[in-house]
Amino acid sequence: MPVAPIYTIKNLKTFRSNDGGGFNASLYRDGTKVADVDDEGNGGSLMFHWLDHKAPRVALTRPSHVRTAPGATYTRHATPEEARLLAYADTLPPIKAHGLVIPEDEETVVSSLVADHEFMAKARRAFKTKVVGIQGDAMVTVNRPPTPENIARVRAQHPAITVVSDLPVDDALAMILAASKTQRIPVDPAPAAKRRAARP
User: For the chain, what are the domain ranges?
Assistant: First the structure.
């Protein structure tokens, strides 16, 4: 059985814009950089700059997301790395947005990676100054320094919270992210999915 690739982002830089915000990031597959990705923050599609853009294109049959033509497909000519990312996206659960069920694609995968990256950075900062825990599918914080005494006090006073402040940070962050993903498919449901759902 083939092993699913692991996609990550690095060098993330976010900025504000008139349409909410944008970002620049580098996309990696299994530790190797494959593309630079830009969100110009104007409501348009993400811009992918594939490092293998000079390689022969791969012809793919992709589902169309035009609501007036359900089940329609189109032919897309992708770079090999772009085709790998799309094949990975096809293995993911669909996104539920605006009453529609939308298949994942390269935009939603990267939008989710960016959202996860920002979420994890926020959580990591919280560990330094607060008691951090999980309640249901959400990260919760208690505004007390994460001393052993405060951690024990929060556990006693709030039994519904699974306190993770005394775990190794990376292990605790993995638990928080896993819990948060039980109710989001994938994140928000991602600006890219919203743009696609709004198309006529």
Answer: 52-200
